UniProtKB/TrEMBL annotation:
It comes from the Eukaryota. This is Uncharacterized protein. The keyword Transmembrane applies. InterPro entries: 7TM_GPCR_serpentine_rcpt_Sru. The keyword Membrane applies. Keywords: Membrane, Transmembrane, Transmembrane helix. The chain crosses the membrane at residues 28-48, 60-81, 87-106, 127-152. The lineage of its organism: Eukaryota, Metazoa, Ecdysozoa, Nematoda, Chromadorea. It comes from Caenorhabditis brenneri (Nematode worm). PANTHER family: SERPENTINE RECEPTOR, CLASS U (PTHR46045:SF18), SERPENTINE RECEPTOR, CLASS U-RELATED (PTHR46045).
Length: 212
């Protein structure tokens, strides 16, 4: 959940600090990625003493339906609530980062004359917008599946069946967002002419400052 947050943050740093963004982003990746890898431990430490068991599914699943669950977790904590709080936190951070990004890009774009805005730059901006919407969509859908599990598991509601596809939704968030960005951004197209190559955001910002 935290890796999609890095994309708007890195681009926001490029827009905000056009002269020093390389150094800032280098340090961000160098220290941020290891922290992101260790971050899940804060939300799963209580599972270390837990024991995995084969558990009977509750209603409305038929007799014989089983799943792998855990018992004897530390302090009796459950993973679903920690996962929900984690999802809300990263979704909020991603939305705020993208709002700031669009504001900064819009401010820089307003300083340019129309002839200076290339078609490739417009396509790149559209790609970022589509990718952002894909990220937010998966945050919302994962949260919806998680809430269905919390409120409807063990009831006779058909919403309890939604937990079956919830793991696939988690995997799709990582795969689909990456593919959307790859398929829509002009930088990944081999037939792009030199004159239509996408401008980096740093050069875009410098042109905006020079046009003032």
């Amino acid at each position: 959940m935290s890796f999609p947050f890095l994309m708007p943050v890195i681009r926001l740093i490029i827009v905000t600090f056009p002269k020093t963004h390389t150094k800032i982003n280098t340090n961000l990746i160098r220290y941020g990625v290891p922290l992101i890898f260790t971050f899940p431990i804060c939300f799963t430490f209580y599972l270390i003493p837990a024991l995995g068991v084969c558990k009977q599914r509750a209603a409305p699943y038929p007799f014989g339906a089983v799943w792998i669950y855990y018992i004897n977790s530390a302090f009796g904590l459950r993973n679903s609530f920690f996962h929900l709080y984690n999802l809300i936190f990263w979704m909020t951070c991603s939305v705020l980062a993208n709002v700031l990004l669009f504001y900064q890009v819009g401010q820089a774009r307003a300083r340019l004359i129309r002839a200076q805005t290339s078609g490739a730059s417009m396509k790149a901006h559209t790609s970022i917008t589509i990718t952002t919407l894909a990220m937010i969509t998966f945050y919302v859908t994962n949260g919806a599946f998680l809430l269905m599990y919390i409120f409807y598991y063990g009831t006779n509601s058909y919403f309890s069946y939604a937990e079956i596809i919830r793991p696939f939704g988690n995997d799709l968030q990582t795969c689909v967002v990456t593919w959307v960005f790859y398929l829509t951004h002009p930088a990944f197209r081999k037939n792009t002419h030199d004159s239509d190559m996408v401008f980096s955001t740093s050069s875009f910002r410098r042109r905006a400052n020079n046009s003032v």
